[in-house]
Design goal:
By secondary structure, the chain is an alpha/beta fold. Helices cover 28% and strands 25% of the residues. The strands form 4 sheets. Strands 3, 5, 6, 9, 10, 17 and 18 form a 7-stranded mixed β-sheet that branches. Strands 13-12-11-14-15-16 form a 6-stranded parallel β-sheet, with helices on both faces.
Protein backbone atom coordinates (compact mmCIF):
# COMPACT_ATOMS: atom_id res chain seq x y z
CA UNK A 1 0.00 0.00 0.00
CA UNK A 2 0.96 3.68 -0.19
CA UNK A 3 1.70 5.61 3.00
CA UNK A 4 3.11 9.00 3.94
CA UNK A 5 6.47 9.26 5.69
CA UNK A 6 8.53 12.16 6.98
CA UNK A 7 12.29 11.76 6.73
CA UNK A 8 13.26 15.06 8.29
CA UNK A 9 12.25 18.70 8.42
CA UNK A 10 10.49 19.56 5.17
CA UNK A 11 11.07 16.09 3.71
CA UNK A 12 7.73 14.31 3.19
CA UNK A 13 7.41 11.40 0.77
CA UNK A 14 4.79 8.85 -0.20
CA UNK A 15 6.32 5.39 -0.10
CA UNK A 16 5.31 1.76 -0.40
CA UNK A 17 4.58 0.06 2.93
CA UNK A 18 3.44 -3.39 3.97
CA UNK A 19 -0.31 -3.84 4.20
CA UNK A 20 -1.41 -3.87 7.85
CA UNK A 21 -2.46 -7.15 9.46
CA UNK A 22 -4.38 -8.10 12.60
CA UNK A 23 -1.94 -8.45 15.49
CA UNK A 24 -4.27 -8.49 18.49
CA UNK A 25 -7.82 -9.85 18.75
CA UNK A 26 -8.99 -6.31 19.52
CA UNK A 27 -7.60 -4.92 16.23
CA UNK A 28 -9.41 -3.91 13.07
CA UNK A 29 -8.06 -3.21 9.59
CA UNK A 30 -9.66 -0.24 7.84
CA UNK A 31 -9.56 1.22 4.36
CA UNK A 32 -8.96 4.95 4.62
CA UNK A 33 -11.62 7.04 2.85
CA UNK A 34 -10.18 10.43 3.81
CA UNK A 35 -7.18 11.46 5.87
CA UNK A 36 -5.67 14.91 6.37
CA UNK A 37 -2.72 16.96 7.54
CA UNK A 38 -2.90 18.41 11.05
CA UNK A 39 -1.36 21.64 12.27
CA UNK A 40 0.55 19.54 14.81
CA UNK A 41 2.13 17.60 11.92
CA UNK A 42 3.74 20.88 10.89
CA UNK A 43 5.70 21.01 14.14
CA UNK A 44 7.67 17.97 12.94
CA UNK A 45 7.75 19.42 9.42
CA UNK A 46 9.69 22.37 10.85
CA UNK A 47 12.06 20.60 13.23
CA UNK A 48 12.26 16.82 12.79
CA UNK A 49 15.86 15.55 12.63
CA UNK A 50 16.92 13.55 9.60
CA UNK A 51 15.64 9.97 9.98
CA UNK A 52 16.85 7.43 7.39
CA UNK A 53 13.85 5.10 7.79
CA UNK A 54 11.30 7.89 8.06
CA UNK A 55 8.32 8.25 10.37
CA UNK A 56 4.81 7.36 9.26
CA UNK A 57 2.45 10.32 9.47
CA UNK A 58 -1.18 11.20 10.12
CA UNK A 59 -3.73 10.65 12.88
CA UNK A 60 -7.10 11.83 11.48
CA UNK A 61 -9.32 9.73 9.24
CA UNK A 62 -12.67 8.37 8.23
CA UNK A 63 -12.61 4.79 7.03
CA UNK A 64 -14.42 1.59 6.10
CA UNK A 65 -13.82 -1.50 8.23
CA UNK A 66 -12.26 -4.31 6.17
CA UNK A 67 -11.42 -6.94 8.79
CA UNK A 68 -11.80 -7.40 12.54
CA UNK A 69 -10.06 -9.49 15.16
CA UNK A 70 -11.86 -12.20 17.11
CA UNK A 71 -12.31 -9.90 20.10
CA UNK A 72 -14.04 -7.07 18.20
CA UNK A 73 -17.81 -6.97 18.58
CA UNK A 74 -18.81 -3.30 18.17
CA UNK A 75 -17.92 -2.88 14.51
CA UNK A 76 -17.96 -5.25 11.55
CA UNK A 77 -16.60 -5.35 8.00
CA UNK A 78 -18.39 -2.83 5.81
CA UNK A 79 -19.05 -0.33 8.60
CA UNK A 80 -18.15 3.28 7.81
CA UNK A 81 -16.63 4.99 10.84
CA UNK A 82 -14.90 8.04 12.21
CA UNK A 83 -11.41 7.27 13.53
CA UNK A 84 -10.53 9.49 16.53
CA UNK A 85 -6.95 10.75 16.55
CA UNK A 86 -6.10 8.60 19.59
CA UNK A 87 -7.01 4.96 20.14
CA UNK A 88 -8.63 3.83 23.36
CA UNK A 89 -10.58 0.94 24.86
CA UNK A 90 -13.42 3.28 25.98
CA UNK A 91 -13.92 1.11 29.09
CA UNK A 92 -11.12 1.97 31.53
CA UNK A 93 -11.67 4.29 34.50
CA UNK A 94 -10.48 7.39 32.64
CA UNK A 95 -12.54 6.58 29.55
CA UNK A 96 -15.63 6.18 31.72
CA UNK A 97 -14.91 9.64 33.13
CA UNK A 98 -14.75 11.15 29.63
CA UNK A 99 -10.96 11.38 29.50
CA UNK A 100 -10.29 8.91 26.70
CA UNK A 101 -7.10 10.80 25.85
CA UNK A 102 -5.70 9.32 29.11
CA UNK A 103 -6.91 5.75 28.44
CA UNK A 104 -4.89 3.20 30.42
CA UNK A 105 -4.77 0.91 27.39
CA UNK A 106 -4.72 3.50 24.62
CA UNK A 107 -2.17 5.55 22.76
CA UNK A 108 -1.34 7.62 19.73
CA UNK A 109 -0.70 6.64 16.15
CA UNK A 110 2.93 6.58 15.13
CA UNK A 111 5.98 4.36 14.88
CA UNK A 112 6.50 0.88 13.55
CA UNK A 113 3.97 -0.91 15.76
CA UNK A 114 0.98 1.37 15.14
CA UNK A 115 1.56 3.15 11.80
CA UNK A 116 -0.50 6.21 11.21
CA UNK A 117 -3.38 7.19 8.97
CA UNK A 118 -2.11 9.11 5.92
CA UNK A 119 -2.19 5.81 4.06
CA UNK A 120 -4.45 3.53 2.07
CA UNK A 121 -5.06 1.12 4.96
CA UNK A 122 -4.43 1.13 8.70
CA UNK A 123 -4.52 -1.14 11.73
CA UNK A 124 -6.73 0.28 14.48
CA UNK A 125 -5.96 -1.03 17.98
CA UNK A 126 -8.80 -1.37 20.50
CA UNK A 127 -11.25 -1.15 17.60
CA UNK A 128 -14.40 -1.35 19.72
CA UNK A 129 -13.34 1.78 21.58
CA UNK A 130 -11.58 3.52 18.71
CA UNK A 131 -14.03 3.31 15.80
CA UNK A 132 -17.38 5.09 15.86
CA UNK A 133 -19.76 3.91 13.10
CA UNK A 134 -21.71 6.51 11.13
CA UNK A 135 -25.23 5.21 10.49
CA UNK A 136 -26.89 5.54 7.12
CA UNK A 137 -23.90 6.93 5.21
CA UNK A 138 -22.29 5.23 2.23
CA UNK A 139 -18.96 6.99 1.62
CA UNK A 140 -19.12 6.01 -2.05
CA UNK A 141 -22.18 8.19 -2.58
CA UNK A 142 -21.99 10.74 0.25
CA UNK A 143 -21.34 14.36 -0.66
CA UNK A 144 -17.93 15.88 -0.15
CA UNK A 145 -19.35 18.32 2.41
CA UNK A 146 -20.61 15.46 4.57
CA UNK A 147 -17.34 13.53 4.28
CA UNK A 148 -15.30 16.62 5.11
CA UNK A 149 -17.39 17.41 8.18
CA UNK A 150 -17.17 13.84 9.44
CA UNK A 151 -13.41 13.94 8.88
CA UNK A 152 -13.27 17.14 10.96
CA UNK A 153 -14.80 15.18 13.85
CA UNK A 154 -11.76 12.89 14.02
CA UNK A 155 -9.75 15.72 15.57
CA UNK A 156 -9.94 19.34 14.56
CA UNK A 157 -13.54 20.33 15.30
CA UNK A 158 -13.78 18.32 18.49
CA UNK A 159 -10.43 19.68 19.64
CA UNK A 160 -11.95 23.14 19.24
CA UNK A 161 -15.04 21.90 21.07
CA UNK A 162 -12.84 20.52 23.86
CA UNK A 163 -11.27 23.96 24.25
CA UNK A 164 -14.70 25.50 24.69
CA UNK A 165 -15.91 22.70 26.97
CA UNK A 166 -12.87 22.91 29.24
CA UNK A 167 -13.17 26.70 29.21
CA UNK A 168 -16.71 26.30 30.55
CA UNK A 169 -18.32 28.25 27.72
CA UNK A 170 -22.02 28.66 28.46
CA UNK A 171 -24.95 30.72 27.17
CA UNK A 172 -24.19 34.45 27.23
CA UNK A 173 -20.46 34.01 27.71
CA UNK A 174 -17.74 36.30 26.38
CA UNK A 175 -14.86 34.35 24.86
CA UNK A 176 -11.54 35.20 23.21
CA UNK A 177 -10.08 32.68 20.75
CA UNK A 178 -6.36 32.95 19.98
CA UNK A 179 -5.50 31.53 16.57
CA UNK A 180 -7.25 31.49 13.18
CA UNK A 181 -6.10 28.02 12.18
CA UNK A 182 -8.52 25.14 11.80
CA UNK A 183 -8.64 24.45 15.55
CA UNK A 184 -9.15 28.11 16.45
CA UNK A 185 -11.98 28.47 13.95
CA UNK A 186 -13.48 25.24 15.27
CA UNK A 187 -13.33 26.71 18.77
CA UNK A 188 -15.32 29.70 17.47
CA UNK A 189 -17.98 27.41 16.00
CA UNK A 190 -18.14 25.29 19.15
CA UNK A 191 -18.37 28.37 21.39
CA UNK A 192 -21.32 29.60 19.37
CA UNK A 193 -22.93 26.16 19.60
CA UNK A 194 -22.55 26.33 23.38
CA UNK A 195 -24.26 29.71 23.47
CA UNK A 196 -21.44 32.25 23.69
CA UNK A 197 -22.77 35.76 23.06
CA UNK A 198 -19.50 37.54 22.28
CA UNK A 199 -16.54 35.86 20.59
CA UNK A 200 -13.34 37.82 20.00
CA UNK A 201 -11.15 36.10 17.40
CA UNK A 202 -7.44 36.96 17.31
CA UNK A 203 -6.16 36.22 13.79
CA UNK A 204 -4.29 37.81 10.90
CA UNK A 205 -5.64 36.18 7.73
CA UNK A 206 -8.79 37.68 6.25
CA UNK A 207 -10.03 34.52 4.51
CA UNK A 208 -9.81 32.63 7.78
CA UNK A 209 -11.24 35.31 10.03
CA UNK A 210 -14.08 35.81 7.53
CA UNK A 211 -15.04 32.18 8.13
CA UNK A 212 -14.72 32.82 11.85
CA UNK A 213 -17.22 35.66 11.53
CA UNK A 214 -19.61 33.38 9.62
CA UNK A 215 -19.28 30.88 12.45
CA UNK A 216 -20.03 33.38 15.19
CA UNK A 217 -17.07 35.66 15.90
CA UNK A 218 -18.40 39.09 16.84
CA UNK A 219 -15.03 40.88 16.87
CA UNK A 220 -11.79 40.27 14.97
CA UNK A 221 -8.46 41.45 16.34
CA UNK A 222 -5.87 41.45 13.56
CA UNK A 223 -3.15 43.21 15.53
CA UNK A 224 -0.18 41.20 16.77
CA UNK A 225 1.66 40.90 20.08
CA UNK A 226 1.19 43.70 22.60
CA UNK A 227 -1.02 45.60 20.18
CA UNK A 228 -3.44 42.66 20.10
CA UNK A 229 -3.51 42.59 23.90
CA UNK A 230 -4.23 46.32 24.01
CA UNK A 231 -7.04 45.91 21.46
CA UNK A 232 -8.74 43.12 23.42
CA UNK A 233 -8.52 45.17 26.62
CA UNK A 234 -10.01 48.12 24.76
CA UNK A 235 -12.88 45.95 23.49
CA UNK A 236 -13.60 44.72 27.01
CA UNK A 237 -13.41 48.04 28.81
CA UNK A 238 -10.02 47.19 30.29
CA UNK A 239 -11.32 44.08 32.06
CA UNK A 240 -10.14 41.30 29.76
CA UNK A 241 -12.15 38.24 28.76
CA UNK A 242 -13.40 35.70 31.30
CA UNK A 243 -12.67 32.79 28.94
CA UNK A 244 -9.63 32.53 26.65
CA UNK A 245 -9.24 29.59 24.25
CA UNK A 246 -5.63 29.19 23.08
CA UNK A 247 -5.39 27.16 19.87
CA UNK A 248 -1.81 27.80 18.74
CA UNK A 249 0.65 26.17 21.14
CA UNK A 250 3.52 28.66 20.90
CA UNK A 251 4.72 30.76 23.81
CA UNK A 252 3.62 34.14 22.36
CA UNK A 253 0.05 32.80 22.19
CA UNK A 254 0.19 31.66 25.82
CA UNK A 255 1.58 35.05 26.82
CA UNK A 256 -1.30 36.73 25.03
CA UNK A 257 -3.72 34.41 26.80
CA UNK A 258 -2.66 35.33 30.32
CA UNK A 259 -2.41 38.99 29.35
CA UNK A 260 -6.03 39.21 28.19
CA UNK A 261 -7.76 36.84 30.62
CA UNK A 262 -9.99 38.65 33.09
CA UNK A 263 -9.22 38.29 36.82
CA UNK A 264 -10.94 35.14 37.99
CA UNK A 265 -11.09 33.85 34.41
CA UNK A 266 -9.97 30.65 32.74
CA UNK A 267 -7.51 29.84 29.96
CA UNK A 268 -8.20 26.66 28.03
CA UNK A 269 -5.29 25.45 25.89
CA UNK A 270 -5.59 22.89 23.11
CA UNK A 271 -2.72 24.03 20.89
CA UNK A 272 -0.01 21.40 21.46
CA UNK A 273 2.57 23.30 23.59
CA UNK A 274 5.89 23.81 21.83
CA UNK A 275 7.54 24.67 25.15
CA UNK A 276 8.28 22.81 28.37
CA UNK A 277 7.90 25.63 30.88
CA UNK A 278 5.17 28.27 31.05
CA UNK A 279 4.73 31.17 33.49
CA UNK A 280 2.23 30.53 36.25
CA UNK A 281 3.48 33.12 38.74
CA UNK A 282 2.14 36.42 40.01
CA UNK A 283 2.39 38.30 36.74
CA UNK A 284 0.64 35.60 34.70
CA UNK A 285 -1.93 33.43 36.49
CA UNK A 286 -1.49 33.75 40.24
CA UNK A 287 -2.01 37.49 40.52
CA UNK A 288 -5.27 37.26 38.56
CA UNK A 289 -6.66 34.22 40.35
CA UNK A 290 -6.83 32.80 36.83
CA UNK A 291 -7.20 29.09 36.07
CA UNK A 292 -5.49 26.98 33.42
CA UNK A 293 -7.34 24.12 31.71
CA UNK A 294 -7.33 22.17 28.47
CA UNK A 295 -5.19 19.41 27.04
CA UNK A 296 -5.44 16.65 24.41
CA UNK A 297 -9.06 16.34 23.34
CA UNK A 298 -10.88 13.13 24.30
CA UNK A 299 -12.58 13.12 20.89
CA UNK A 300 -14.26 9.77 21.60
CA UNK A 301 -16.21 11.39 24.45
CA UNK A 302 -17.91 13.85 22.10
CA UNK A 303 -18.40 11.86 18.89
CA UNK A 304 -21.79 10.30 19.54
CA UNK A 305 -23.32 13.76 20.01
CA UNK A 306 -21.38 15.41 17.18
CA UNK A 307 -22.10 12.90 14.40
CA UNK A 308 -25.88 13.59 14.42
CA UNK A 309 -25.17 17.32 14.43
CA UNK A 310 -23.25 16.89 11.17
CA UNK A 311 -25.79 14.56 9.61
CA UNK A 312 -28.67 16.89 10.56
CA UNK A 313 -26.86 19.92 9.15
CA UNK A 314 -26.61 21.71 12.49
CA UNK A 315 -22.85 22.18 12.03
CA UNK A 316 -20.59 22.07 8.99
CA UNK A 317 -17.08 21.93 10.46
CA UNK A 318 -15.69 20.48 7.23
CA UNK A 319 -15.48 23.99 5.80
CA UNK A 320 -12.00 24.20 7.32
CA UNK A 321 -10.88 21.93 4.46
CA UNK A 322 -10.11 24.30 1.61
CA UNK A 323 -7.95 21.91 -0.42
CA UNK A 324 -8.23 18.20 -1.25
CA UNK A 325 -5.37 16.27 -2.86
CA UNK A 326 -4.67 12.65 -3.77
CA UNK A 327 -2.56 10.78 -1.22
CA UNK A 328 0.28 10.79 -3.77
CA UNK A 329 0.38 14.57 -3.37
CA UNK A 330 0.93 14.51 0.41
CA UNK A 331 4.22 16.46 0.13
CA UNK A 332 2.29 19.24 -1.64
CA UNK A 333 -0.34 19.16 1.12
CA UNK A 334 2.32 19.81 3.76
CA UNK A 335 3.88 22.58 1.69
CA UNK A 336 0.52 24.27 1.10
CA UNK A 337 -0.38 24.26 4.79
CA UNK A 338 3.08 25.37 5.87
CA UNK A 339 3.00 28.32 3.45
CA UNK A 340 -0.57 29.16 4.55
CA UNK A 341 -1.85 28.69 1.03
CA UNK A 342 -4.29 26.23 2.55
CA UNK A 343 -6.03 26.19 5.91
CA UNK A 344 -6.38 22.41 6.10
CA UNK A 345 -5.81 19.75 3.44
CA UNK A 346 -7.74 16.51 2.99
CA UNK A 347 -5.90 13.53 1.49
CA UNK A 348 -7.82 11.08 -0.70
CA UNK A 349 -6.25 7.61 -1.11
Amino acid sequence: MKATYMYGAGDVRVATADDPVIKEPTDAIVRIVRACVCGSDLHRYHSMPATPDGRSMGHEAIAVVEETGAGVHGVKPGDFAVVPFLWQDNTCVFCREGLQSSCLHGGGYGGAEVPVLQAEYARIPQADGSLVPVPGIDPATAGEGTLSSLLALSDVYLTGYHAAHMGQVSPGATVAVIGDGAVGLSAVLASRQLGAERIILLGHHDVRTDLGVEWGATDVVSERGDQAVAKVLELTGGEGTPIVLEAVGHMPAYEQAYSIVRPGGIISRVGVPQYEKAPVGYGSLFGKNARLAGGPAPVRAYLEDAIPQVLDGQINPGRVFDLALPLDKAPEAYRAMDSREALKVALIP
